[in-house]
Design brief:
Radius of gyration: 39 Å
Helix content: over 70%
Shape: rod-shaped
Pfam family, one: DUF3302
Protein name: DUF3302 domain-containing protein
Keywords: Coiled coil, Membrane, Transmembrane, Transmembrane helix
InterPro entries: UCP028770 (IPR011223)
Number of domains: 2
Structural class: mainly alpha
Strand content: under 5%
Largest sheet: none
Number of helices: 5
Order of helices and strands: HHHHH
Number of strands: 0
Oligomer: single chain
Distance between the termini: 143 Å
Organism: Photobacterium alginatilyticum
Amino acid sequence: MFLDYFALGVLVFVAVFLFYGVIAIHDIPYEISKKRNHPHQDAIHYAGWVSLFTLHAIWPFLWIWATLWREDRGWGFTKIQNEQHELHHEVLQLTEQVERLTEKVAQLEVTQARQSATSHRNDKVNQKEED
């Protein structure tokens, strides 16, 4: 008779332990988001409770969602944005440089055309004088 009650006690203890264990495990993404001061803490917490009903099918995605945010760098895209801004600035500088060089080439072509026209006229004048 004692063993029956002992077995029942062990069974209840294991059931309660598993129940609280599952709840503690499902709350890990929320705790991570709380520690990191995540802007979507509440959504992660509610989604964690929903994951209990989906047998934790969405739990790995909650983990990823919670770990993507860090308070010091946000979502991590600032470095990419800074690099893109620098590249855009460099492209603008190169575009301006190409425009200046195009203008210089056009000026040089005009100057060369004038010089060749002048030398062509001088050649004709010299030929007439020689004749």
